[in-house]
Design a protein that fits this description.
Helix content is 63%, strand content 8%.
């Protein structure tokens, strides 16, 4: 029944080849124009990013009376005068500007944060309903704010800039767009050049890649359309979709194109070769896609928002790639025929053993030795994973020189040296209002400073670098009322000095109107919040804050910000992987059992993939942590290895084992192994080289930017893992295991019960 299905697919692809190509091209064009883009539908937010029970989420919720919803995007607005202190006209202009900024779409609040001690600079905080993870929305917000500032006709001596983490992210992202495009272009160029070398023809590389290129456009539109009606789309979906579609599409293309060339060399006509090849490898392609989709759908079990929201969109992309691999690609091959391989000549041949056939010939004579050496080496590398520790991304992003965000950040550093562009928030809730006993603020601030965890600490008693005593704060609150309600300039008749008035206004950021919730913005002694050292310090920071909170009588405490969030992400990511990988392995095992009609082969095939995964991760630990001295590897590396090694690795398993099974039905098993490895070895290694080369380009192109060391680790880990998988596991260790098990490979199918009198005899050299 299965053979009949793929035979019908092959005949249909040949017979209706022109119709299929036209439908794919026009259907993709229509979808791209009619549906929203994928990038416009990224809709995960911080509330889904981490579970609600995560400590950093709970701390952010605790701080909501002060900082608003954790999903809102904050942007600092820094104003600096070049002529002495801010004048009355400067202040009036800034008041007018704040009113204009409130009219910017999505802006919810414009809040005064403080005036510098020398009176020359002022900071406002704009809060928007744009979700922090919304890349497109963040860019629109920053563009709208800078546009409003430019149109405000400010005094000539007054310069105003955007600043802070979100503005920096937008500026850096704009610069990296061109770098990302170059990386994609270099990746495609690399794949085409490599395929030119492999096929030694002009058209074969282009035809092999064309379905993947079309699917990238179509799947982006389809996923974007589904996102518009509620499908959750992770912020890294687009990047991984490109790599996954190019990787899987190249694999499926190589599986089919190599088999078509082989059938032509056996004397079949181009149309017969396409029909026969779809019959022979169609099931392998379908099974390969099924294993990847199953592995991706297990991500729906994840608690971590990015992982959870990746599963369905990427599975949809692979499903569309499967459809193209079984319809569009065979149709193109049928149209181009022998011209596909020009200028190479297709000589008739029957022996396909080649280099990998000779390797397999030696391997089947001494399978125990080959398997033992492989297990020792891979086992040793896998043991190094015990030293793995999740890390950060090497520090905070820096806005590109010359951008408005870079100027704003420089002004923040110059005029507000105690402020952090990316602060860690220490939040406490008290059982009684601190307005009735502000002395508790002094005790808490002193204890936090003495904890040894912080280098800077801005709070209600020193909100902008200028200090207030608890008594002064109490008197100001009694005389002026809530700080959040005060105008830019003192009300007529107020005797409070302007500097003191400005300092009190700035306390609105740190004490809630009711006085029950208080926060401090801290710089970490461990370093930038995005570094491994800062993430490692989070447990000690939380413990110190909890101790201080208990000492001063706080009813609830929390620590929010980048470092606490990354610490929670690392912890939950590890927990998710421990939960997802066993489920994925079991699901993939069921697919393999159905495809190979065996209960034995899936066991060692899955073991080989897991061993390859652990060995690759262990090698990354040795290179980057033990040798290069990095404090940790980014938490996302094991996850990416899971997708590309555990899922895509089964593509090669299925191809090799399906070919061994096919050959074993016609000849003794050892000869079948030699023939199958000789015929499929080039396909597997070519596909592996393409994918590994793509990750190498990614590592080189991205290593000069922010988090370059971690990008190198990701690229290196994936590239080396794929090379180990293709050159050692699939072509040596798996065939050695097949040889040792003999007919038990296929148990309980009929082939597993067949007695092969020649199995124990090595083939001729």
């Amino acid at each position: 029944m299965v053979n009949a299905l793929f035979a019908a697919l092959g005949r249909g692809a040949v017979r209706f080849r022109w119709v299929i190509v036209v439908v794919w091209i026009f259907g993709t064009g229509f979808a791209v124009h009619a549906l929203p883009t994928l990038s416009s539908q990224i809709n995960n937010n911080n509330s889904a990013f981490l579970p609600t029970g995560a400590p950093s989420n709970q701390a952010a919720v605790l701080a909501e009376p002060l900082i608003g919803s954790i999903n809102q995007a904050p942007v600092d607005i820094v104003a600096v005068t070049s002529g002495g202190q801010l004048s009355t006209s400067d202040r009036a202009a800034l008041t007018s500007l704040a009113a204009k900024l409130r009219g910017v779409p999505t802006v919810k609040h414009v809040e005064y944060l403080g005036t510098s001690p020398d009176g020359r600079a002022q900071v406002e905080l704009v809060t928007s309903s744009v979700q922090i993870m919304d890349v497109t929305g963040s860019k629109t917000l920053v563009d709208d704010l800078t546009g409003a500032i430019a149109a405000a006709h400010l005094p000539s001596a007054l310069s105003v800039h955007v600043a802070g983490q979100l503005a920096t992210n937008v500026a850096e992202q704009q610069q990296s767009v061109q770098q990302g495009k170059r990386t994609q272009e270099f990746s495609l160029l690399f794949i085409i050049i490599l395929l030119l070398v492999i096929f030694r023809s002009v058209l074969a590389p282009l035809v092999t890649l064309l379905p993947a290129a079309i699917v990238l456009q179509l799947s982006g539109a389809v996923i974007g359309g589904l996102g518009s009606v509620g499908l959750k789309i992770s912020s890294i979906t687009q990047l991984l979709l490109i790599v996954l579609i190019l990787g899987a599409g190249t694999d499926y293309g190589l599986f089919l194109v190599f088999r078509v060339r082989e059938q032509m060399q056996r004397g079949l006509s181009p149309h017969e070769a396409v029909e026969t090849s779809v019959l022979r490898v169609g099931e392998s392609i379908a099974a390969s896609a099924a294993t990847v989709m199953v592995a991706l759908l297990t991500l729906l079990l994840a608690s971590f928002g990015i992982y959870h929201d990746l599963g369905a969109p990427l599975a949809i992309g692979i499903g569309i790639m499967l459809l193209a691999g079984l319809t569009l690609l065979p149709a193109l091959l049928a149209i181009f025929g022998r011209a596909l391989f020009w200028p190479s000549k297709l000589y008739e041949r029957q022996n396909y053993r080649g280099v990998w056939g000779r390797v397999a010939g030696r391997l089947v004579r001494r399978p125990v030795l080959a398997l033992a050496i492989g297990l020792v080496v891979f086992g040793g590398l896998a043991a190094a994973t015990t030293g793995y520790k999740p890390g950060g991304f090497g520090g905070n992003l820096t806005a590109p020189a010359g951008t408005d965000a870079a100027k704003g950040n420089a002004a923040l550093t110059a005029y507000f040296p105690q402020a952090s562009q990316n602060p860690t928030n220490v939040v406490m809730r008290f059982p009684t209002s601190v307005w009735t006993d502000p002395a508790v603020l002094a005790r808490t601030t002193a204890d936090l400073r003495q904890s040894g965890q912080f280098t800077t600490l801005l709070g209600p008693l020193d909100p902008a670098g200028a200090s207030l005593s608890p008594h002064e704060l109490e008197v100001l609150h009694a005389d002026l009322g809530p700080a959040v309600d005060l105008p830019t300039t003192p009300i007529a008749g107020t005797s409070v000095p302007l500097a003191t008035y400005d300092t009190y206004r700035a306390t609105a950021r740190y004490v809630s109107t009711d006085g029950f919730t208080v926060q401090w913005e801290a710089g970490l002694r461990a370093g930038d919040p995005g570094t491994t050292k800062a993430i490692d310090a989070v447990p000690a920071i939380r413990s110190a804050v909890a101790t201080v909170g208990q000492r001063v009588g706080a009813s609830a405490v929390g620590v929010a910000g980048q470092a606490p969030a990354l610490a929670d992400v690392s912890s939950i990511s590890d927990s998710d992987l421990h939960k997802i990988i066993p489920v994925a392995v079991l699901a993939i095992g069921l697919v393999l059992a159905l495809v190979l009609r065996s209960l034995v082969a899936p066991l060692y095939l899955l073991a080989s993939v897991v061993l390859s995964y652990l060995a690759s991760l262990g090698l990354a630990v040795i290179v980057f942590m033990d040798i290069a001295g990095q404090g940790g590897l980014t938490f996302i590396l094991p996850f990416l290895m899971f997708i590309f090694l555990l899922a895509l690795g089964e593509d090669y398993n299925i191809l090799v084992m399906s070919r061994i099974r096919e050959e074993a039905s016609k000849r003794p098993l050892r000869e079948a192994v030699v023939e199958a490895v000789g015929a499929s070895g080039t396909t597997v290694t070519s596909a592996g080289l393409v994918l590994a080369g793509t990750f190498t380009v990614f590592a080189i192109a991205g290593s000069s930017g922010p988090g370059g060391s971690q990008i190198r680790a990701i690229g290196f880990g994936l590239a080396v893992g794929i090379l180990l998988d293709t050159f050692v596991v699939r072509t040596i260790l798996v065939p050695a295991t097949v040889t040792l098990l003999g007919r038990w490979n296929w148990w309980p199918a009929a082939m597993g019960r067949r007695t092969d009198p020649v199995v124990a005899q090595p083939p001729p050299a």
